[in-house]
Amino acid sequence: MEIPAINLKAIVLVHWLLTVWGCMAWLPMSFAWGNFTVLAVGVWAIAQRDSVDAVLMFLIGMIVTILTDIIHFGIFYPTDLSIERGRDTVRFSIGMAILSLLLKPASCFFVYQMYHERGGDYNINFGFPSVSRNRDAYQSIDQQNEPSNVQHPFNPAQDSKPGVGTY
């Protein structure tokens, strides 16, 4: 089964609209700043089509906002919706913010697919030195061409008769 191609512009647009609607009535400014900052990184990923770093930063930002959105909902969810004035606006805003949170894991999946399509590899490097098994750039010492008259100062057995080994 093939994964459908979702445009990055559509993901950013949908989350921007849901974030605007979610910030209308009850969420604090930290929710808006966090989500709009990540969406700005998404605009950067749209503008630079070949940038792997932009898509990776957008993906990491979306994952972080999933956690921060849950924390915001847990702290700032209104417990008393019996206030008649603005009750429908608060309910709409809550619904849109929750819908944005529910769509973020699917958006992260599609952004991860775009990261892979742009050339990102599955192991994410955070800049720490590591040992790599990729040795494609190295030339094997077995394939070197040596002149036949070269003496080997550290291994006299190679200068002697073939078949005779030193023990």
From TrEMBL:
InterPro entries: AGTRAP. The chain crosses the membrane at residues 54-77, 89-112. The keyword Nucleus does not apply. One of its GO terms (cellular component) is plasma membrane. Residues 145-167 are annotated as: Disordered. SMART domains: AGTRAP. Its main location: membrane. This is Angiotensin II receptor-associated protein. It comes from Mastacembelus armatus (zig-zag eel).
